[in-house]
UniProtKB/TrEMBL annotation:
It comes from the Bacteria. Keywords: ATP-binding, Nucleotide-binding, Transport. Residues 4-225 form the ABC transporter domain. This is ABC transporter ATP-binding protein. The chain holds residues 2 to 226 of 347 of the full protein. GO terms for molecular function: ATP binding. Coiled coil: none annotated. It comes from Paenibacillus motobuensis.
Amino acid sequence: KPYLRLEGIRKQFGNTTVLHNVNLDIREGELVTLLGPSGCGKSTLLRCIAGLTDLDGGHILLDSKDIVNLPPRSREIGMVFQSYALFPNLSVSENIEYGMKMRGVSKEARRKRSAELLELIDLGEKRDAYPQQLSGGQQQRVALARSLAVQPKVLLLDEPLSALDARIRKSLRSEIREIQKKFNITTIFVTHDQEEALTLSDRVCLMNKGSIVQQGTPEELYAIP
Ligand code: ADP
Ligand code: ADP
């Protein structure tokens, strides 16, 4: 039984259909990448799942419940974007604790959780720093910690490594995979980088022009002549 099921997802902007009948089942704890050229609809699909964009058709079942009519916050979905999108006027720990604070988590519990996450991303000594004092890779680790802080059911990563230089990209790639496995969090990772998709994921979905045109494990896709 899939943990996250996308069923007949359709989205258009004006007269242009950007997503055509997208169907996808994801198991609990699985990391699936969406790989495809710029403009094929990857970001739009993630935004639909997160509730940041309305669908024109289809269903999104999370843990057997249709979440299509829920507002973003009630969907329990975390998202990390290409641009780090941290709050510039909040410190690292305040950024990580923000979502918990909004949900009424006690100060003590917030501190404990953010300390654990800071240790996990190896940025404990930066807890009082501000985002602009961090490198791009560090900011992206904080963004990841911030999205995990509220214990989402699903994590959506929209080209989280694209703005980083190649060396940092590789180390952060394995760090993301480690954290994803440790939390056993169901994850969709969007990228246009084939190597990234093949090294990172349990399953790769190739997207083109608003549809998933092929999918398989990295091994299966490598075997395609
Ligand atoms: P990708 O993430 O694969 O690069 P996007 O989902 O960002 O693709 O975009 C898919 C298509 O939808 C593109 O042609 C893009 O220009 C278009 N698009 C995305 N968002 C909007 C929007 N808010 N209004 C109109 N067109 C959009
Ligand atoms: P990405 O880097 O994910 O492909 P884009 O740079 O295409 O994202 O889009 C950034 C923002 O602009 C998104 O909010 C997207 O919905 C919006 N957008 C993209 N294409 C269009 C478009 N043709 N018309 C209006 N908004 C768009």
